[in-house]
């Protein structure tokens, strides 16, 4: 606010100075009332210009949420129990959203594991190698850092040391981590099914990793894929009847004489 007010003061002062110089060059002769009116008009225009300039200098933050659009909802059917619906944000990271859609429609993510899951931090997947070093055959992406914070449920792109090294790996934030803001590209957020994200098996890598059974774009209309139920436990072998030990043979009674 102070910066904007300073801009207004400078703009108004400059406009008034320019007005008096121009009026002097014009030779005067209009009367005091005309001069005051002209100054007032010039001041009003200067104030309007200052407001416009201040509005341009104020950063325009993207909306926290946008209307749900099936063309920009990423569905992840997880072996941890069900479908996770994620609102993609092409308004803040268009190239990253385009990449996710392209790989999803190729079937790239189907069957991939969450290979790095840190409790209270994030769950990372999207690596065909399953060890954090892999990616797709498409070129790496230029960073699209934006003001969106890394809150619970935020979908962000994993990368190597270079800011422009994101490719196919992503992570979902489990608890807020603001220190990641403007260092990783946020491109979506979970809007339904966060309980299935919470159920992703932990570990680096997990001993029994959670799998993406199917990734799809909601407008494509693919029905959910559910994990097969675990096989029933094998029946315990029936206990064999115990054999009673044979009774010892009785000694014949001695004959009476």
Shape: elongated
Structural class: alpha+beta
Strand order, largest beta sheet: 3-4-6-5-7-2-1-8
Distance from N terminus to C terminus (CA atoms, Å) equals 133 Å
- Describe the biggest sheet? 8 strands, antiparallel
Mean pLDDT, rounded to whole units? 83
Strand content: 15-25%
Flag low-confidence runs.
1-30
Quickly count the helices. Answer: 4
Structure description:
- With 257 residues, the protein is an alpha+beta fold.
- It is built from 4 helices and 8 strands.
- The protein has an 8-stranded antiparallel beta sheet.
- The model is unreliable at 1-30 (pLDDT under 50).
Write the layout of secondary structure elements.
Layout (H helix, E strand, L loop, with lengths): L1 H25 L5 H26 L15 E6 L4 E6 L5 H13 L7 E5 L3 E4 L28 E4 L12 E4 L12 E7 L1 H5 L13 E6 L40
Report a brief summary of the structure.
With 257 residues, this protein is α+β, with helices and mostly antiparallel strands. The chain contains four helices and eight strands; from the N terminus they run ααββαβββββαβ. Strands 3-4-6-5-7-2-1-8 form an eight-stranded antiparallel sheet.
Attribute tags:
257 residues; alpha+beta; 8 strands
